[in-house]
Amino acid sequence: MPYRISRRTFGQLAGSLVTAAALPFRMFAAPSVSRATATGDRRFPAGFLWGSATASYQVEGAVNEDGRGKTVWDTFSHTAGKTHNGDTGDVSTDSYHRYAEDIALMKDLGLKTCRFSVAWSRIFPDGAGQPNPKGIDHYRKFCQALRAAGIEPWCTLYHWDLPQALEDKGGWQNRETAKLFADYAGYTAGKLADVCSHFMTMNEISTFVELGYGNGIHAPGLKLSRGKLAQVRHHAVLAHGLAVQAIRAAAPHVKVGSAENLTAVVPVFDSPEHVAAAKKATVEENAGYLTVMRTGRYTDQYLQTLGADAPEFTQEEMKAIGSPLDFQGLNIYTATYARAVKNAKGYDIVGNPASYPHMESPWLTVGPDALYWAPRLANECWDLKEIYITENGCSSADVVAGDGHIYDTDRVMYLRNYLTHLQRATSEGVPVKGYFLWSLLDNFEWADGYDKRFGITYVDFKTQKRTPKLSSEFYRNLIARNSL
Length: 484
Prior knowledge:
Layout: H1 7-14, H2 33-37, E1 49-53, H3 56-59, H4 72-77, H5 95-109, E2 113-117, H6 120-123, H7 133-148, E3 152-156, H8 164-167, H9 175-192, E4 198-203, H10 205-214, H11 226-250, E5 255-260, E6 265-267, H12 272-284, H13 287-295, H14 300-306, H15 315-321, E7 327-331, E8 336-339, E9 348-350, H16 370-382, E10 387-391, H17 409-427, E11 432-437, E12 457-459, E13 466-468, H18 470-481
Parallel strand pairs: 1-2, 1-11, 2-3, 3-4, 4-5, 5-7, 6-8, 7-10, 10-11
Antiparallel strand pairs: 8-9, 12-13
Helix pairs in contact: 5-7, 9-11, 10-11, 11-13, 11-15, 12-16, 16-17
């Protein structure tokens, strides 16, 4: 999913099963369980869920098949100048047809779970009205194939691909879209509940709102005023809350959560005053999204900062937004540093110098300690019972070497360092129960098109050949040992 802008900007805006022979080369033998025991101090908790994540528009392709309706990303990517090289998700990795091959890759990795998203317009081509049985049938078959491989499906109901028919009626500017999303979410969860037990309402509300309606670099490409943007923000979190209620009504035995890319605040120093400041910042820097979703109220500072631009809302809506969740997914890529200062907020956000290191994507600055501090502080702020890292990973300038392999040592470095900090969190009792690596495959990277690769599996987009990278070997061995 990834694609980011500086969260300082947000502050300003808001206030084919493959054979064994075709599977990856072995860089080194997977250690035995007994060897893993020798590194017990770096083990993850027993039963820790290791998975991967993908999203519908980024991998499926087949945009005109089986009754799928047009989405804002179909429109946006086919508009000149909106994506790198004019790239679109029309075919992408063709996972709609090749999901059996992708599941074989997951099984070879030893994945316990797979996070995927349903395309709203495959279920309701126009966002509402008569459901499309071919859409539900596809996702049921996908979930059944995962479970047959011993992999538990985790479903995200919205990963940015709003039906274009709803955008034509105002999209997320229209309060009615929130209600229609709840209808879709309840219907879909009800139809999939016997083959999927975990549902996330939305992925990264802050990203599709701020980039889609704030600065316009994502679909639908709008640049709204501060007040109108705040109202879009409210409608999106309201949609989440109403969807939680609809899912519980339609499928009471499933678990419900969300996947949010919170501003991952890290104290500049691990000292009491800076940790306290980072905790305050975690609440306020996420006020329009995760904070209100967990508490059912906007913070005073958030509303005061917006002033006359604050959104219109009712107490009934706020209660819905704060609907209790069974788990919280956190998407974490970068760190935002905070320090204690004597001002009204009690903290200040420290910007990064121009020399600060980043991965292939310029926005993806390297902050491994975010995978410790973000879940820890989120738990302290909102008493989270179950946390899952629903996305973490990085882009790399991947090239196929002369021997046919992809040696993405920078991605291995990134994952090793970040996961070291996550293991620290779990060892200290932070209730992180699983990790979904972004991503299983190289895919359509939104406005970056196919220029940035985030997969641990290299995809030749001309032939659709999948080639596991060095990072795939790293992840396989980590899963086999359940330890770093």
